Description:
By secondary structure, this protein is α/β, with parallel strands linked by helices. The protein has two domains: 106 residues, CATH 3.40.33.10; 142 residues, CATH 3.40.33.10. It contains ten helices and eleven strands. The strands form three sheets. Strands 1-3-5-4-2 form a five-stranded mixed β-sheet, with helices on both faces.
Amino acid sequence: MSSPRRLLPALLLTGSAFSSVLAQSPAPSLPDALSNARAQGCSGRQGVEQPFRQVPALADAARRIAQGASLESALSQAKYRATRSFQISLRGYGSAAAAVQAVRSRWCEALTNPELSDVGVYRRGDATWIVLADPFSPPEPGKAEEVARQVLELVNRARGQPRQCGDKPFGAAPALTLAPALHRAAELHSRDMARNSFMAHQGSDGSTVSDRVDRAGYDWRTVGENVAAGPETAEQVVQGWLQSPDHCANIMQPAFTEMGVAWATDRQSQAGIYWTQVLARPRS
């Protein structure tokens, strides 16, 4: 079994600026003006047609930042879970146009980052606080089978060609198939990790992957497990596993013939989403 490795940590970034321009009330359409600037692009960066989505929780987070909270604390207090987030502080810009120009010239990369899709703005006097964020967007619960098939397809695509996992070379391996009992074992462990906010191969009850597979009624000859915390899509979780030598070796192991995969979410947990992949060969 491979050692656990947390994947895709959230990004928390900040920026600030000050202008000596006479203070005036920024236009109420500042979020729209930011979306227009985003579409136009800046500093040689391509524009993003999708406008920002105005989110009240991010406006609340911006207000909390104005009161002295850190970006991470403000998002938590506003009950907005972000995969990525960016804070901009402006002072002295007397119009929306002037504020947007400052953002374009100093924070073009954040403005045109397509992953930062949500915006919240708070204004006080001549100061403006802007929070851009990528919302935590785990798979919908009703898409468990669809996501499992996506993971299976990506894993079999990887197994279909020779691969180097760290210092270990692997030849192409036969395709895996999904096994309902292995899915149950994976789901049990993912729920345990999400509920108790941890990532490890040992369950909160002390169980191992072989224990959980036994409980699921699967008579196995060989068994292994990959876990992850943080990825929101099948593509992200498989990519992360393939980039980790031990996880990659599990995926490429020709002794395995079947797999099960499941995720579980808990917005109050540290990572938000937890994945388990169980790989095995039945005894007969």
